[in-house]
Structure formats: structure tokens, C-alpha cells
Amino acid sequence: MSKSLQAIRGMNDILPEQTPVWRYFEGTVSRLLDNYGYKQIRMPIVEFTELFKRSIGEVTDIVEKEMYTFEDRNGDSLTLRPEGTAACVRAVLEHGITGGGQVQKLWYIGPMFRHERPQKGRYRQFHQIGLEVFNLDGPDIDAELIIMTWRLWGELGIRDAVKLELNSLGTSESRGRYREALVAYLSAHHDKLDEDSQRRLKTNPLRVLDTKNADTQAVLVDAPKMADYLDEESRAHFEGLKARLDAVGIPYVLNPKLVRGLDYYSKTVFEWVTDKLGAQGTVCAGGRYDGLVEQMGGKPTPGVGFAMGIERLVLLLETLEQIPEEISRQVDVYLCAFGEEAELAGLALAERVRDQLPNLRLQVNAGAGSFKSQFKKADKSGALYALILGDDEMAQQVVGFKPLRGQGEQQSIAWDALAAHLATCVVQG
Ligand code: ATP
Ligand code: MG
Q1: N or C: which end of the chain has fewer CB within 10 A?
Q2: How buried is 198 (Cβ within 10 angstroms: 0-12 exposed, 13-18 middle, 19+ buried)?
Q3: Which residues, judged by CB distance below 6 Å to any ligand atom, belong to the binding site of ligand 1?
Q4: Closest ligand 1 atom number to CA of residue 260
Q5: Residues 273 and 418 grouped into a single domain
Q6: Is the pTM of this model over 0.90?
Q7: Which of 319, 349, 375 is the last residue of a domain?
Q8: For residue 412, what are the domain limits?
Q9: Which atom number of ligand 1 is nearest to the Cα of residue 130?
Q10: pLDDT one-digit tens code per residue, 371-428
Q11: Averaged over 62-74, what is the pLDDT?
């Protein structure tokens, strides 16, 4: 195929055999979000570039080198969203729905775009489910976010494969004092830092903690620790969060080097990580961003949120073989009809059954075909039962009901009784 007819590197088609797992995952998450009282918001995929520069921060990896930015026909600089928080904050401010201290518990789902090096678990178009809570500043809501994800891992059967890492970045005042101490320490060891860290020391010193460079990591062993710089308010908040996680029995590991890639975090930061996916092990990440809304032109409004990477979680479900068998079955019943008269009767019968069993996955054979070929298609569809309409069945106004997966003999069911019979033998999703 010529190059122009291929998908863009790092942007994937999600094929029909993969979508059932995606829908299972998305369905499980959205049901949980409903149950915990979160409401969905849908933002555009494209925003003014300025929005991301202002919110994510000029000297972050995302803004410096990962954004898909282009000029539109009006000459405006636009960017494909690299994450959801910025647009969500923009939307709540634009519509005034967090004004006067109104609490909003919001979630969104959709594609994000970052020009990164594609590899397993890292793509240029990827998908997130994210959520943001506005106007609640206590540790109770931070705990709720984590508790809800813990329940999600439990329902998905992947709890044993993920680990919660936790840190507090404190209020902006305590972070400021810590930054000073860290800069003083790192400046004294400037020559031993890698080039990237030397640059970050000037632009975004906390990010040095995040380095993968072994020499810099060695320098960091004796560096000042954020925990020693937390003020009373930050400390009490962090203790409150930990007490709630303890109460529910959620294990966590304190990671003083966890700083997150974005500029806007304060107090709580957390990541759920797995060692089952190689290098791209963070499946869900978030934290508190009490200063962000004000920084974007709103009134001071506390906020907290997270985002999970759907590709990585789907990969984890596949790796751990935690995909329920019934989600890949897309057909319950397959109707075969032989001859034109039977085909017409079959169509009408199928619609009557659908009226009575709206969740039944009933596939009617298309393209006619011999007895043998229709049966082959019925079997290949994955259906549990075939319904058969031939000359004999037409004469008696019955339908042949044939189990395809070895659950007993074929029987005849009267047309009027078919829906009731199906209701007893097909578990409806
Ligand atoms: P990483 O350290 O892996 O680059 P990040 O800190 O940049 O992640 P966030 O911006 O916090 O990631 O996004 C939240 C989640 O979205 C990540 O934990 C991950 O599961 C997922 N994610 C982020 N970038 C990608 C990507 N390029 N491809 C696939 N999933 C991604
Ligand atoms: Mg990243």
C-alpha cells in the first residue's frame, strides 16, 4: 500500500475483535462512575494552543515537545488535546458551573494526542478516562477517587497486579521552600547531574527527582525530602488521606520522588503502577491542583482528578487473561431460513422476538444459502442456538431450536412461544 494510505505512526485502528474488551472496560468504569455520583462532560478535541501552555506549563515535556500544534485557516494556533484537565477547567469556567463554590464531580473519555516515541503502551493517539472534582478541598474526596479505582481493579480482576504510589507536594508555600532547598543542594552538585537535569534545575527543578539517569539518581539519595518541608496544613491533609486509605484497607507505597509530569499539582499526587507491562507501567495517575483554576483566570477553586490510560488497562486485562468469556460472544441466536417463504416468515418472527426481548442478540442469516452453508455461518457466529425455518417448520408454524454448543437435542418451538423459550435459555447481557 502506498504510504499516504496508511494510518499515522502511533495512531491505531481498534479492530472488531478488540472492541469488545474496550467496551467491557469502558462499560465497567462508566457504571462505577455513575454509582459514585460523577457526571459526564464532553469537551472538543481541539483547543487554542494557549490553553495548554497556560495550564500544563511551558517547560513541561508535553508543551515543549509533544503537542500536535497547527494553524487553522484563520491563522489561530490550535492544538489537539494532549490531556483532558485543561479543557475541562476551561469548560467549567466558560459555563460558570463551579461558581459560588458549586461542587462538580465530572468525568470524560476520549482520545488524547502526544508526539512521543511509539512503543508498547505508548502511542501518539491514545485514550483516557479522566475525572475532575471541583470545590472540595478535603482529603476525603482524594480518598474517594482512590477508593473508586481500587474497586475498579477489583471488579476487573487486576487488583493484585497494581500498586498505589503516593506522595504529597504540599501547598504552594511549602513547595516553594522545598524547591529552594532542592535547588541549593543540586546546584552544589551541578557537575554530577546529567544534561537534562542541569537544564531542569533552572526551569522546573522538581522534575529532576523524576530522572532516569543513574548518576543523577545517586546524587538524589541525600537530597532534601519534600516530606520534611510540608507545612501543617499539607501534613494534616496527607495524614487524612492515608487514614482513609487505611480504613478501607488499601495498601500504598510512599514515593517521595513522585512529582508527576505536569506543573499544576499540589498536595496529593498518586499513580497506580504495574510491573506486568514493561516500561510503560503507569495505568492511572492524578492528584490535587488547588492553584490551577485561579492560574487559568477563575476564582480560587480547589480541584483534584486523575486519568487512566485505556490502552494500558486493556493490555493488562489481556496479559492477565482477565477477560470474561461472555463479552467476546456477540451473537446469542442465529436464524436460518430456507426458501423465500421461510425467509419472509423468519424476518417477521425475528422482529416479534426483538419486541419482546430487546437485549437479545439475534442475527438473521443474510445471503440465503444451502442448509450446510447457513449452519456453518451460524456456528462461526459464536451463537449458542440456531433457529431453523424450513418447509416442515413452515407447515407446522414452528421453528427448529438447535443448540450449537452441545446443550441437548434439537426441539420444535411454536412461533408464539419462541420469545418466552429464549428468555429461559439465553442469559441476556
Ligand atoms: P508517562 O509517565 O507514562 O508518560 P504521563 O505522566 O505522561 O505518563 P499522564 O499525563 O498522567 O501520563 O496521563 C495519565 C495516563 O494516561 C498515564 O498514566 C497512562 O496510563 C496514559 N498515557 C499517557 N501518555 C500515554 C501515551 N502516550 N500512550 C498511552 N497511554 C498514555
Ligand atoms: Mg508522558
Answers
A1: N
A2: middle
A3: 83, 114, 116, 121-123, 126, 128, 261, 280, 282-285, 307-309, 311-312
A4: 6
A5: no
A6: yes
A7: 319
A8: 331-427
A9: 14
A10: 999 999 999 999 999 999 999 999 999 999 999 998 789 999 999 999 999 999 886 5
A11: 95
